Amino acid sequence: MLGTPTYMAPEQYEGKDVGPATDLYSFGATLHALLVGRPPFPGASLPHLMLQHLTQPPPRVTELRPDIPAELEWLVLELLTKDPTCRPASAASTSDTLRALTGDLLRSTPPPEDRPPSDWAPLPPRPPAEERTLRSTDDAISTRIEFVNRRGEAVRIHWLDYQGHRVFYMRLDPGMSYIQQTYVSHPWIVTNTAETPLVVFRPTAAPGRATIHGR
């Protein structure tokens, strides 16, 4: 099995033949993440992730981004169809459809500032009590956060969705870091493995570093 589990097609998990339709599924998962700030299946473990890709329908992007056109949502759902024969005919036809559907929507999103993470400004840690008042809102300003775990224990990274609910994204072991694409109006909360809130981070238009300190 070769690939990034979060974006792998069902046939890859099953060890079946792969082809262009497999790449289209991976693109659909990537497109979903770009549109709503999270992958379609954020499984907490590899077995859980595999089960989601094999059996669960993808969440509708309009549940998180009501401003997304219905036709664009349909394209994402078509790309994420479990049966490879039911996905779009080719990458070229998908590109043509996407270009026709998005137009101004994609052009309105400026590219993230192209600087290495070592140059990104630190994001100020905010008290975990803020979680109760925060939720994501719509905007088209894409950005990135580098989460860095300086604690002596593993932490869990969660996005706060449009209802203010936690959506688990990543377990980060001590000394580890990872970069998350997100939007300026999407808050994030870090908890310990018992789900006790530790710190809140709010993205800025420029990419930033969210360092998680503590014991």
Automatic annotation (TrEMBL):
Keywords: ATP-binding, Kinase, Nucleotide-binding, Transferase. Residues 104-138 are annotated as: Disordered. It catalyses: L-tyrosyl-[protein] + ATP = O-phospho-L-tyrosyl-[protein] + ADP + H(+); L-threonyl-[protein] + ATP = O-phospho-L-threonyl-[protein] + ADP + H(+); L-seryl-[protein] + ATP = O-phospho-L-seryl-[protein] + ADP + H(+). Signal peptide: none annotated. The keyword Nucleotide-binding applies. Residues 128-138 have a biased composition (Basic and acidic residues). Pfam families: Pkinase, VHL. Its EC number is 2.7.12.2. Transmembrane segments: none annotated. Residues 1-99 form the Protein kinase domain. Gene3D superfamilies: Transferase(Phosphotransferase) domain 1, von Hippel-Lindau disease tumour suppressor, beta domain. GO terms for molecular function: ATP binding; protein kinase activity. The keyword Repeat does not apply. Belongs to the protein kinase superfamily. STE Ser/Thr protein kinase family. MAP kinase kinase subfamily. This is mitogen-activated protein kinase kinase.
